[in-house]
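Q: Joint fold for the lines below.
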Amino acid sequence: METQGEPPIKKSNFIIDLVEADLDSNRYDGRVQTRFPPEPNGFLHVGHAKAICLNSSIANDYSGVFNLRYDDTNPVTESTEFVASIKDDLQWLLGEELKTVPLHTSDYFKQLYLWAEDLIMKGKAYVDDQDVKTISKQRGGFQETGLNSPYRDRGTEENLHLFREMRAGKFYEGECVLRAKIDMGHDNMNMRDPIMYRVKTEEHFRTGKEWNIYPTYDWAHGQSDAIEKVTHSLCSLEFESHRELYNWFLDQLEITGNQRPYQTEFARLNFTYTVLSKRLLKYLVEDKIVDGWDDPRMPTLRGFRKRGYPAVAVRNFCEHIGVAKTNGTHEIELLESFIRNNLNQNAERRMAVLNPLKVTITNWPEGHVDMRQAINNPEDESAGTREIPFTGSLYIEREDFMENPEPKYYRLAPGREVRLRYGYFITCNKIVKDKEGNVTELLCSYDPETSGGKAPDGRKVKATIHWVSAEHALEGSAVLYDRLFSTEHPGAETGEPLDDINPNSKTLRECIKLEPSIGDLTRGSVVQFERLGYFHPDEEIPLLFHRTVGLRDEWANIVKRR
RNA sequence: UGGCCCGUAGUUCAACUGGCAGAACGCCUGGUUUUGGUCCAGGAGGUUGCAGGUUCAAGUCCUGCCGGGCCAGCCA
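A: Joint structure:
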């Protein structure tokens, strides 16, 4: 895996400790096997990225095996659309094709079924004819013990017969279920005779109409791990209380020794200024708050991709944050710093003006075009140079001029001299305004002696600003993205995250001015528009750019502090 | 007022298993710079949730509190 020159911080976390301890004790004969088990009912987001990176890097670091396993046990919510997108996003994130073919829980339906019969015969499972409500009520509460189902003590033969009929499609949905027979008075609610199978008539996207009953997560998960010979079954904290059941099932099936996986939980990833819950993300899409699952503002991997986040930067981020059992929220700035770090090294620089202000150089020789040489990437000499036409009629950024400059504002102002990057020093002599008093044009003079960017007399300028020649400029557009939510912890105040949606998270800038070489940019690559930020060319629309992330901005900090 | 889990700079994590509490990001100051970017140097920021106990020595072990999270789907 690429590391792009990151300082080699030795990784240390409680999961690595466990893996190494198991290696030391030879628990699995030196094997390490992990898996990423998404349900194919939605798109992957950064939260999943953490789990993917964790599982795949543990397998990588210890010469183990990492599998993608679709946890497709619920035909009503799952579809092939998601199967495809998950694999696609996963490979994008990992930066390579999967080394193993994707697995499916549905591949194990037969084995799971046989094991269920096994449990029935051991008197450890029974068919319950009660409906959802009744079962739920009987489960009791945290402080009250549950009630045994009247069907709990059915005979083995009757259970077997009923279960086979369930499979044969003799029952309607909700008519009956198969339950593990554990303990209705257990402190852990998951142990109060959990459901193993339920009837579902919906067609499964892989097994079609073959099955009328489907295993629940609890019944399928640990057994699937065991079938695949997973060693370390990593999942998020919310499954902590399911671990006891995970182990109980393996106990009943007498899966032991180096064939027996064990579950370890870690904290899922959270970020400031966004949400990662499936429900909320779905709302954003369906209520058209965003333009789709791949909207660059979305924390989905598709969104990241469209926004121009390099996959390796996301991986490095995941590597860096490590894992722990503390539920917390990462500052989004940390992710952004990894994005910038990568892009600073790799993105070519270009000049673009997003909010153009006309500048006329009054002493420029009429019709003269001066080709200026510019460095493509100061961090990477091999990126070479390019030429940019300089003329007497330019556009500069409106924000780079202030009629009445505030303290510490270094850029252009009446009577002030600045440097045009790769061009000359210019001085603002006159402001042209329209009837409403808006500045429409600046009349400036240039100093021909400053062609090299320095004045022979040694005088300094405080600022260097970017520009584009008016007659050579390409016209395009840019979309500027801001945080999707306006508060660090959406919903912290009202309890409803949607109350904190930032109404200005997307700004379209049309008629932006681009230096000519931008027309030749290769698709997919991210460029830095100097002094503005990193921009990702849209995959379809020419000269449309998505702002990946802005540059760090000292001036913005100064303004904010006021 | 059940059970399980978690509390270390603002944030997220380390601390070789009892031996001088560190890093990254963020913030601040200075330097370099034809990007107010990058880079370099430095700084602030901690009663390790609280209170006891064991020990020459406790973030680490013990006890008790406090705070937070998760669990009562035929979702995963």
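Q: Anything notable?
A: Residues 280 and 498 of chain A are 8 Å apart (CA to CA). The first strand of chain A starts at residue 33 and ends at 36.
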